[in-house]
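lol forgot to send this yesterday, sorry. struct tokens for the thing we talked abt
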């Protein structure tokens, strides 16, 4: 673990160095570059640690919410730019795959929220977005996250009118999605979304929201919902708004999240923060059910 510094010292240093270099409990990410006076949403860091893509409603975009990318130079995030494939709709929930081959995201460019993926070529160049959905289910989907081995997709689906968001998982075979199953051990009457895998043993972190409040939770096994509890963080409270945990691909011991409940440091509306990845004890035998594992590919 890195040497802890007093929180005020971290806050002061981050005014000049947007990438957190030391953590006590948490640190803001990219003051004035990633975290601004606008609202920022989910953020994800490339496998080589050189790029961060995040959602923002800042005014220089082309839609309500757009995807932006900043580049690491001299230890700081610099030169934030909107991605070329942003649409006039909302483009949100970016997620770099662990192997660096794909950027996943959600967009309502063609109506309801749908999952998309973009191939990443040499030099980090993005290809063209392609839909990545289950043709047998047209329900809105968002917040995609691939497991480290690329074999399981975690995402949220809105089950229908009058129903909220729930977490689902689907197998991935030869780049195609299999039939999804609801993670009933995690889902409640609240909205569950914006999850990510912790390590390779099926543990997850995710967001549980009720109305305008949101809180980050964790579980030792996505498939069974074992050991579900809120992540310990001073501003991750039931009456606040802290959400969208995503593990840093380049530094798996740390993760990004967004909040408007932190007292300081603050940049504006909903800011991006960094904290240590919560430790979750592995659950013996954690894995998808036989039926889910053998589901037909769609």
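and heres what i got for the seq, position by position
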């Amino acid at each position: 673990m890195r040497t802890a510094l007093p929180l005020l010292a971290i806050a002061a240093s981050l005014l000049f160095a947007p990438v957190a270099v030391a953590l006590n409990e948490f640190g803001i990410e990219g003051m004035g570059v990633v975290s601004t006076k606008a609202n920022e949403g989910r953020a994800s860091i490339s496998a080589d640690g050189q790029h961060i893509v995040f959602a923002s409603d800042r005014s220089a975009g082309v839609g309500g919410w757009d995807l932006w990318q900043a580049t690491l130079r001299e230890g700081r995030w610099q030169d934030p730019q909107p991605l070329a494939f942003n649409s006039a709709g909302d483009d949100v929930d970016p997620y770099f795959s662990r192997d660096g081959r794909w950027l996943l995201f959600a967009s309502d460019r063609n109506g309801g929220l749908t999952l998309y993926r973009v191939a990443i070529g040499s030099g980090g160049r993005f290809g063209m977005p392609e839909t990545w959905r289950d043709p047998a289910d047209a329900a809105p989907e968002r917040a995609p996250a691939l497991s480290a081995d690329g074999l399981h997709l975690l995402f949220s689906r809105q089950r229908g009118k009058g129903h909220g968001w729930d977490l689902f998982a689907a197998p991935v075979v030869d780049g195609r999605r299999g039939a999804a199953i609801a993670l009933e051990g995690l889902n409640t009457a609240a909205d569950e979304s914006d999850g990510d895998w912790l390590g390779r043993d099926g543990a997850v972190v995710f967001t549980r929201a009720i109305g305008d409040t949101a809180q980050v939770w964790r579980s030792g096994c996505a498939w069974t919902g074992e050991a579900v509890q809120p992540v310990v963080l001073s501003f991750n409270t039931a009456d606040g708004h802290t959400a969208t945990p995503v593990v840093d691909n380049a530094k798996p011991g740390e993760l990004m999240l967004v909040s408007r409940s932190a007292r300081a440091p603050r940049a504006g509306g909903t800011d991006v923060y960094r904290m240590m990845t919560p430790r979750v004890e592995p659950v013996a035998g954690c894995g998808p059910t036989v039926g889910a594992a053998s589901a037909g590919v769609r």
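The chain has two helices and 21 strands. anyway ping me if u want another try
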